[in-house]
Amino acid sequence: MQQPGISDRSFQYGDGIFTTIRVHRGQLLLWPYHWQRLCASMLRLGMAAVDEVWLKQQAEQQISAPEQVVKIIISRGQGGRGYSPAGFGQALCYCSASALPDYQALQQQGLSLDLARLQLGIQPLLAGIKHTSRLETVLLKAEVDRSTADDLVACDSTGLVTELSAANLFFYQQGRWHTPRLHQAGVAGVTRQWLLDYLQLTPGCYSLAQLQQATAMLACNALMGLVPVRQFAGLQLDVAPVLPLQQAYVNFINQQNNNVLSADYFGRDLVPVARPASTDVK
Ligand SMILES: Cc1ncc(COP(=O)(O)O)c(C=O)c1O
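Above: inputs. Below: predicted complex with pyridoxal-5'-phosphate.
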């Protein structure tokens, strides 16, 4: 696997995408969800196609322990004329491995959340994509570091509740779960998608006032799975509604075949964009 050069566009301009995969029992967990998000994102950005079998093999070559993390970065390429994305052929893929952080305490005790001052900018063309232009997320994380909460709920600049600094948010109200639609901002997480499929849920648009009516919340991402929120902005939350979902997720990932995928994965979040003539996405 190649190393990125200094003229790599993901380094120069954030002109790339990435995904962070949990390895569980020596296998890439939720691979079809990661692959589908990569594909939808490459299509959206007009990047050249990557072969799934080859990419999965490259990622699997990074596995050296039953539980760890594999990260894939796909860059549009090297060099080019300034910002212009014209004329690039094969995308460049980079895989790396790291240890899986221990989320056990967090999963048992739950997260404390507060509200972020930072508002996420609106860009429907990038919404949902896990792209490498993440300065906004870096600023949000800096705000988390300064706060006394474990993480912060970020709204977009129109006031719609969006996500946390590196996780998606679900909330429970009057016997039903809800999660924000990510058509203006945010990253459409693979774990979020698993939960949407499991609950047969359609995302919606929610104001902060609606979120404040929640009686339970959970945060999710590919590495930590589903984590209950124990308090939000001083409001105590009930962790009980989260427990059956946590259990269902654990059962799912421990099944032999966890490669179930809904047909319209990401179709509800990623705005359809005409396929650029220069790309060849399978
Ligand atoms: C900003 C942001 N939102 C959501 C997520 C959750 O995505 P996933 O479930 O694919 O890990 C992440 C993951 O790192 C993230 O960085």
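The chain has eight helices and twelve strands.
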